Amino acid sequence: MANPHPQVYLGDRIVAAEAATVGVASSAVLYGLSVYTVFPVHVAGAARTAFRLDDHFRRLEESCKIIGIDRFAAEWDYARFSAAVVELIARNAPTEDVFVRATVHVVESIPGTRVRGCAIQVSMFVYDAVPIVPQDGMRLKSSPWRRIPDNAIPSRAKVNGAYVNSVLAKQDAIDSGYDDCVFLDGNGHVCELSAANIFLVRNGTLITPDVSCDILDGINRRTVLTLAAEDGIPVVERTVDLTELYIADEVFVTGTSAGAAPVLEVDGRTVADGRPGPISQALRKRHADALRTDVLHGWVTPLG
Ligand code: PMP
User: Fold this and answer.
1) Which CATH superfamily is domain 138-292 in?
2) Which portions of the chain are predicted below pLDDT 70?
3) Does 196 sit in the ligand 1 pocket, CB within 6 Å?
4) For domain 7-128, is the CATH number 3.30.470.10?
5) Calpha distance 284→254 (Å, rounded)
6) Does ligand 1 have an atom closer than 6 angstroms to the CB of 254?
């Protein structure tokens, strides 16, 4: 378990982590009515950079828009957001790479099950960048829990309450001796992991479920798709069957907290020869490099 670093952003200021609380009667607590994002900050001595900060902000805005949290667009813009990140990182002065979790909480007290016009508070905290899945080869289990469909709680919006779905599936995988789950939709098609996107390689083509497959439109997913296309790897976004994972040449996952990490087993079937494949390895390296320095795409933002 990771602890937040001592200084936390809440509302419009930095406070001590112990004082950064949200009320028990808020919709955030009552209904899990908050949306969030997590982005990495790379630390190299005094230089600190955030990866795709503007894209994370945009996704947070979009999550609010989908759910109807209208006060965020009224009160926040990218300039305010990035200034808060700069201040938070300066105050904590991390010496190693960290993750930042930024959340928009609906803090209205007992408003009932509605959202429009309700008061919000933004929180941001920093924690150690510890991956949530093994980086040298993970084992996955297809979940008995179905992914929440777009017309129930949309995966496209990163809603805190929706993560009960992820908790059920991840815990089932852990209880069964696996590292993480593969979520399937109601028709048995592959969606994603509990908190990462999934890719497979067949005959040299990179394949991943498209964004209308009840997945989060992951920022690292987009990154890997761009890098693969630049490297001349054919890329296809489409519906994926579970059994395609069983016979894939390579399987890997992407996410801020997952990295770009290989999968070596799915439901007791070894992926290919049980070793990370060449395309997974090459993209893992390209992705790791992009997190640190990137001149081509403008993905890296200096923080002060
Ligand atoms: N899917 C889910 C359900 C997630 O929670 C995450 C982590 N944010 C991802 C995919 C990967 O998204 P990203 O690359 O933006 O971290």
Assistant:
1) D-amino Acid Aminotransferase, subunit A, domain 2 (3.20.10.10)
2) 1
3) yes
4) yes
5) 9
6) yes
